Amino acid sequence: MNSIHKQSKIYIAGHRGMVGSAVWRALEADGYTNLIGKTSSELDLRNQDAVSEFIASEHPNVIIDAAARVGGILANSEFPYQFLMENLQIQNNLIDTAHKQNVEKFIFLGSSCIYPKLAPQPLKEDCLLTDSLEPTNEWYAIAKITGVKACEAIRKQYNKDFVSLMPTNLYGSFDNFDLNTSHVLPAMLRKFHEAKENGNTPVTLWGSGTPMREFLYVDDMAQAVVFAVNNKLPEHLYNVGTGTDVTIKELAETIQNVIGHQGDIIWDSEKPDGTPRKLMDVSKLKGAGWKYEIELLQGIKKTYAWFLEHHASLKQVKLSK
Ligand SMILES: NC(=O)C1=CN([C@@H]2O[C@H](COP(=O)(O)OP(=O)(O)OC[C@H]3O[C@@H](n4cnc5c(N)ncnc54)[C@H](OP(=O)(O)O)[C@@H]3O)[C@@H](O)[C@H]2O)C=CC1
Ligand SMILES: C[C@H]1O[C@H](OP(=O)(O)OP(=O)(O)OC[C@H]2O[C@@H](n3cnc4c(=O)[nH]c(N)nc43)[C@H](O)[C@@H]2O)[C@@H](O)[C@@H](O)C1=O
């Protein structure tokens, strides 16, 4: 039985990020009254002692791990060590502390890139570790696989409610719009917007445009987390996505239309394509009772509206070696 109730104390690690902030809003809207969070400057989750002290002083009933070193294809390939090591440090500290201090529920967020590059589509949870990973993000993927396995091991050995959710590519309010480190969707919104403002100049996009990606609006992802808080899920690993995908070229044309840009699109073949396709099989979480609501076009319009309101003060994610 699920031991969590509306007054349970819930610590959202990464509560200022795109996903963490959406989870905070969704839990509040669902009636949860005792949410806590710390910024990375208040609590560096790479520091094991600091994490242990914080959890000992707060005694949360639930930890949601939405803190990570996150970035798009270029950031992942240029900073392999940070994507591997920082993510291992953050998640190991949170998972091990949660286990040792008897936190009742732990929700780990991974990513669809944990699955093999050429796994059969749509990707089922049980194709994990059946083949090689996509090279542009294998470092990040290895960290995330380790997190999934750590939660699975704790669940198996100690029968605890530690569960992993694997989101597909996410987008929405509070996304990262920095053109070097962002994912494709926010990058396209910014590029087409700025090109339109500059008199419909050409927009340069990366790769060939042929890879396929699935996109989930962040508020739908947050509802999946609320679902995992509200229910004791019977298995350790669940994919979270829409179950449909588009080519990067189709995404570009949709965003170009939403923004009303009328210039050319140039494809920069020097930039990587990444994995050809990573469509999620989401039947397990759907079967348990969760489903997405926001279609891609609607989500793009919402995100563009958010961008227009906030782009003067957007966060700039800088990575240093
Ligand atoms: N964005 C996407 O497309 C996808 C994301 N995910 C997963 O979802 C989760 C959230 O991602 P998203 O919201 O997009 O990422 P963001 O970059 O928006 O947020 C990440 C958060 O992690 C926190 N953080 C990073 N390093 C540290 C640290 N050393 N100590 C404390 N906090 C730290 C940051 O805190 P602060 O702001 O205080 O610095 C930030 O709030 C991640 O696990 C990611 O892997 C999975 C699939 C796709
Ligand atoms: C969520 C997921 O995100 C990452 O994987 P990815 O899906 O390959 O990342 P992406 O969103 O950055 O790119 C998707 C596609 O889009 C193309 N593309 C075109 N033009 C731009 C462009 O302007 N910017 C970016 N970033 N990509 C572009 C790009 O070449 C690629 O073909 C993982 O590293 C990993 O972190 C992970 O789990």
Automatic annotation (TrEMBL):
Record has Heme as a keyword: no
GO molecular-function terms, A-Z: GDP-L-fucose synthase activity; isomerase activity; NADP+ binding
Q: Mind telling me which InterPro entries this protein's record contains?
A: Epimerase_deHydtase (IPR001509), GDP_fucose/colitose_synth (IPR028614), NAD(P)-bd_dom_sf (IPR036291)
Q: Which residues bind substrate?
A: K191, W206, R213, D273
Using the record's annotation, list all stretches that form the NAD-dependent epimerase/dehydratase domain.
10-241
Q: Which residues form the active site?
A: Y140
> Positions of the site: Important for catalytic activity?
S111, C113
Sorted alphabetically, the Gene Ontology BP terms of this entry are: 'de novo' GDP-L-fucose biosynthetic process
Q: State the top-level EC class.
A: oxidoreductase
**Oxidoreductase is among the record's keywords:** yes
Write the record's keywords in alphabetical order, separated by commas. Isomerase, Multifunctional enzyme, NADP, Oxidoreductase
**What pathway is it annotated to?**
Nucleotide-sugar biosynthesis; GDP-L-fucose biosynthesis via de novo pathway; GDP-L-fucose from GDP-alpha-D-mannose: step 2/2
Record-listed E.C. numbers: 1.1.1.271
**Which domain of life does this protein belong to?**
Bacteria
Query: Which reaction is catalysed here?
Result: GDP-beta-L-fucose + NADP(+) = GDP-4-dehydro-alpha-D-rhamnose + NADPH + H(+)
Q: Which family does it belong to?
A: Belongs to the NAD(P)-dependent epimerase/dehydratase family. Fucose synthase subfamily.
Q: What does this protein do?
A: Catalyzes the two-step NADP-dependent conversion of GDP-4-dehydro-6-deoxy-D-mannose to GDP-fucose, involving an epimerase and a reductase reaction.
Indicate what this protein is called per its UniProt record.
Answer: GDP-L-fucose synthase
